[in-house]
Structures are given as C-alpha cells and as structure tokens.
Amino acid sequence: MPRPILERTVPDGSAVAVDPGAVNAAYARSLILVALLLCVAGVAFATDKTVSVVETVDIPASSSRTWATVQDFRGWQAWHPAFASTEIVRGPGNAKGTVRVLAARDGARFTEELLLHEDVSHVVQYRILQSPLPITNYVSSLKVQSTYEGSQVIWSSTFQVDAGAREEDIKKAIAGVYRAGLDHLGAVIR
Predict the structure, then answer these.
(1) How many domains does the chain have?
(2) pLDDT at 94
(3) N or C terminus of the chain with fewer C-beta within 10 Å?
(4) What residues make up the domain containing 15?
C-alpha cells in the first residue's frame, strides 16, 4: 500500500508534496544523531568532572611531632606501609619543584612533583605527573593541624577520572591508600 502524500504550502505560496514516512525517518535520524552527540558529550563531561577524596586521622601527639614524621617528601616509606622507596629525580627533596618517583610495594611507580612544603602551616602539596591510575590533574595535600588532644592529619586530593574508568572505584582505591597510611601513622608515632 503506497504511503499517503501530504501537501504543504511553502513561503512562496506554492504547494509541495511531502512523504510523511520520509519526514519521520529524517526526524528519527536527527534524534539518533542528537542522542549520540549527547552521549559523546557526556563522556567528555565525565572526564572533566573534578572529584575529591578526603581522609583524616587523629593522633595523640603534638602537631610538631606528627609533622616531623610526615613532612619529608623523600621518606614517606618510613610511615606508609604501601610505599617501598622514594627516588628523588630532580630537586633537593623538600623544596618546591622537587620530583620523586615513589615506588609502591606492589611494584606501581608514581612520579610526583612537590608543589608546596610549608613548615609553618604544616602542609605538603604535590601533584602526580605519571602513574598507573586512570586519573589526570591529581593534586593532593597532606596537612597536620593541632587539636585539643594532639593533632589531626588530613590527606586530601582532587582529580579527574579518565573516560572508561569508574569514579567510585578510583575514589575507593585512593581513599584506601590514604587510610592505610594514616592508620599506620598512628602506630608509628605512638
């Protein structure tokens, strides 16, 4: 059975034959194209979304004692059980611009640059230059502050998760690394 043909009047006043099936097919194709573009844009937006992780621990020791334990950018393996060694590849160690390769006990290697080492405010800030994690723009801070009962260490970061990786899995992995280090730090300082 042939499809019905409709007549439409165009701006110049003439009538044009229109096949509704063809119009619906073109409309459907344009909807599919828009949906695909939105999906692609959604993936692009997902990689631009900044996520954060924050873990803390209270330590029954003064902030200066806690800071003395964590502040050395060259020696986090002394208090973090997941880290095996640190190699300084550029800079003196605790100065802005120092680059280290932090080796984990599982063999993973992280190349990180020191952005801030502040003895007065007890803050170390660094960024990851290279890592096996599917993340970009990772910047992290380790801060020690005084409390009534001693000190608190706050380890936080912001980053973007690469397309194809699950945000919750990455956040959980990073929080797990922070938690392992912070929990062990309490045992090291006591």
Answers:
(1) 2
(2) 95
(3) N
(4) 6-43
Helix (H) or strand (E) holding 142: strand 135-147
Would you say residue 143 has pLDDT above 90? yes
Residue 120's φ and ψ, nearest 5 degrees, are -70, -50
- Tokens coding 82: 């997941």
- The one-letter code for the residue type at 15 is A
Rounded to whole angstroms, what are the CA distances from 25 to 3, 22, 32, 131?
Answer: 13, 5, 11, 48
One DSSP character per residue, 104-130 reads ETTS-EEEEEEEEEETTTTEEEEEEEE
pLDDT tens sequence across 146-177: 999 999 999 999 999 999 999 999 999 999 99
Question: What is the spatial distance between Cα 134 and Cα 128, in angstroms, rounded to a whole number?
Answer: 12
Write down the residue that tokens 């280090």 correspond to. 181
**pLDDT cut 70: percent of the chain above it:** 75
Is there a single domain that holds both residue 16 and residue 108? no
Residue 141 domain flag: yes
Please state, in angstroms and as integers, the Cα–Cα distance from residue 103 to each residue in 3, 106, 120, 131, following that order. Answer: 70, 8, 28, 10
How far CA 21 is from CA of 25, 32, 34, 69, 131, in Å, comes to: 6, 16, 20, 74, 54
